C-alpha cells in the first residue's frame, strides 16, 4: 500500500535558512505533504565548495528541524566519498519505496529554470514529481520556447494528480516569496550584519558558537 506523497528536498544548505523552510511549509499545506526529507549535497570538487563542512551543514539542518515534525534529514549523500547525481539518489529512493509510491522532489524556481541542464533530468522526472516553490527575482517562464512547451506538457492539473501518479508531473506551487539566499547570508555574516530574520534561532546560535562564515 503506497504511503501519501513523500517529498525530498536537495540542496547545499550552507546554511539552511527561512527561504528553504517557509515556502516548503506552505507547499506542504497546499499539496498535503506529511513528510519532507532533506538530503544535503556533497558538492563536486569542480564546484565552489561550501564554506561550512558537511558535518556543520548537517548539524545546522538538525538544529533547524528539531521540533518541526514535517522535516526529516537523510544524510546519505554526505556519507559517500563522491558527490551523487540527483538522478542516482532518486533512483535509489524509487527502488526503496516501490514503483507505486508517489514521490516528489522539491526545488525553487531558479532550479526549475536550469533543470533541463541537470544530468539525466528526464530520468529524475521519471522517478518523481517536481514540486516547485516560487522564488523572487526569477522569471516564471522557461529560458526558451521549447523548454516552455516541455514544462507545459508536464504540468500537473492539480495537487490531486501528485497523489494519484507515482512520478512525472511538475507542480508550480503558490508559495510565499522570500528574498533570501545562503550566498547573501554568508556575505552578511562576513560583514558582521545581523541575520536573525533570515535563519532559525538555533541555526544562528550554531553559526555564532562555531564562528562560521566569518572571513
Ligand atoms: P546559495 O546562495 O549558496 O546558492 P541557496 O540559498 O540558493 O544557496 P541551496 O541550498 O542551493 O540554497 O538551495 C536548495 C534548494 O532550495 C534549491 O532548489 C533552491 O532553488 C531552493 N531555494 C533556496 N532559497 C530559496 C528561496 N528563498 N525561495 C525558494 N526556494 C529557495
Summarize the structure.
The protein is α/β, with parallel strands linked by helices and 215 residues long.
Fold topology:
Blueprint: E1 6-11, H1 18-31, E2 36-40, H2 54-65, E3 71-73, H3 76-79, H4 86-97, E4 103-108, H5 109-114, H6 121-127, E5 129-133, H7 145-154, H8 159-164, E6 170-172, H9 182-190, H10 201-210
Parallel strand pairs: 1-2, 1-4, 2-3, 4-5, 5-6
Helix pairs in contact: 2-10, 4-6
Question: How would you describe the overall organization of this protein?
Answer:
- The relative contact order is 0.20.
- This protein has one domain: Rossmann fold (3-Layer(aba) Sandwich).
- It is globular.
- It is built from ten helices and six strands, in the order E-H-E-H-E-H-H-E-H-H-E-H-H-E-H-H.
- Strand 2, helix 2 and strand 3 form a beta-alpha-beta unit.
- The model has no long low-confidence stretch (mean pLDDT 96).
- A six-stranded parallel β-sheet has the order 3-2-1-4-5-6, sandwiched between helices.
- The chain has helices at 18-31, 54-65, 76-79, 86-97, 109-114, 121-127, 145-154, 159-164, 182-190, 201-210, and strands at residues 6-11, 36-40, 71-73, 103-108, 129-133, 170-172.
- By secondary structure, the chain is α/β, with parallel strands linked by helices.
- Helix 2 (54-65) packs antiparallel against helix 10 (201-210) and helix 4 runs parallel beside helix 6.
- It binds adenosine-5'-triphosphate.
- The site of adenosine-5'-triphosphate (ATP) has 18 residues, from helix 1, strand 4, helix 5 and helix 9.
Amino acid at each position: 500500500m503506497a504511503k501519501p506523497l513523500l517529498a525530498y528536498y536537495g540542496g547545499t544548505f550552507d546554511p539552511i535558512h527561512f527561504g528553504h523552510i517557509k515556502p516548503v511549509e506552505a507547499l506542504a499545506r497546499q499539496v498535503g505533504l506529511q513528510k519532507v526529507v532533506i538530503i544535503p549535497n556533497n558538492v563536486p570538487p569542480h564546484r565552489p565548495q561550501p564554506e561550512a563542512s558537511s558535518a556543520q551543514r548537517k548539524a545546522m539542518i538538525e538544529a533547524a528541524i528539531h521540533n518541526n515534525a514535517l522535516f526529516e534529514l537523510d544524510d546519505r549523500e554526505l556519507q559517500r566519498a563522491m558527490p551523487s547525481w540527483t538522478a542516482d539518489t532518486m533512483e535509489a529512493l524509487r527502488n526503496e519505496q516501490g514503483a507505486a509510491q508517489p514521490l516528489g522532489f522539491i526545488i525553487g524556481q531558479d532550479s526549475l529554470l536550469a533543470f533541463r541542464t541537470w544530468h539525466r533530468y528526464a530520468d529524475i522526472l521519471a522517478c518523481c514529481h517536481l514540486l516547485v516553490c516560487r522564488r523572487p527575482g526569477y522569471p516564471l517562464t522557461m529560458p526558451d520556447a521549447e523548454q516552455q512547451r516541455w514544462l507545459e506538457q508536464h504540468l500537473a492539473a492539480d495537487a490531486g494528480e501528485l497523489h494519484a501518479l507515482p512520478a512525472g508531473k511538475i507542480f508550480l506551487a503558490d508559495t510565499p516569496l522570500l528574498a533570501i539566499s545562503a550566498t547573501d547570508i554568508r556575505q552578511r555574516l562576513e560583514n558582521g550584519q545581523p541575520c536573525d530574520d533570515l535563519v532559525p534561532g538555533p541555526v544562528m546560535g550554531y553559526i555564532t558558537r562555531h564562528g562560521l562564515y566569518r572571513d
